[in-house]
Design goal:
Layout: E1 2-4, H1 10-14, H2 17-30, H3 36-55, H4 60-67, E2 71-72, E3 79-81, E4 88-89, E5 92-97, H5 100-105, E6 113-119, H6 121-124, H7 128-137
Antiparallel strand pairs: 1-5, 2-3, 3-4, 5-6
Helix pairs in contact: 3-4
């Protein structure tokens, strides 16, 4: 049992149309399911492009400001670039590993996980107060200002 931010079968299970299209296109092109890393890279690239366009600049500070607090939906439900720490707040999924027999039955032999349930990003991530307390305990109080 573990947790993932994304897996190829999540869009189908939760009916995320854009995610389903991504899985379909990726699978046809590469004869494999997209990994969580592939989905992350795809999403980050599009988020960067969107932030540059909204900022009207490639300047790091302006792009970061355009991302802070920005909400979007791409391959799954709504996500947010949290302003105070630039963390991507998103739903996470509890998964259970499948048996070797079940994995080998799959056409790509890489259907590793059964999705058990989900947890919203707000519940899964530390709050700003928790984040500040952790930083203070780690003697990083200078960054709290």
């Amino acid at each position: 049992v573990g947790a993932l931010p994304w897996a190829w079968n999540i869009p189908e299970q939760y009916n995320y149309e854009t995610g389903k299209k991504f899985v379909e296109t990726f699978s046809k092109r590469y004869d494999a399911y997209p990994s969580s890393s592939a989905a992350s890279a795809y999403s980050i690239l599009y988020q960067y492009k969107d932030a540059v366009e909204r900022a009207g600049s490639f300047e790091t500070a302006k792009v970061r400001k355009a991302l802070e607090g920005h909400k979007y939906s791409l391959l799954k439900d709504e996500q947010e670039w949290r302003a105070f720490d630039q963390q991507n707040i998103q739903t996470v999924y509890a998964v259970k590993g499948k048996t070797k027999e079940d994995i080998l039955k799959d056409k790509y032999q890489s259907d590793y996980f059964e999705i058990l349930t989900s947890m919203s990003g707000e519940k899964a991530a530390r709050t700003q107060r928790q984040w500040k307390n952790d930083r203070f305990k780690a003697n990083k109080s200078s960054i709290l200002n």
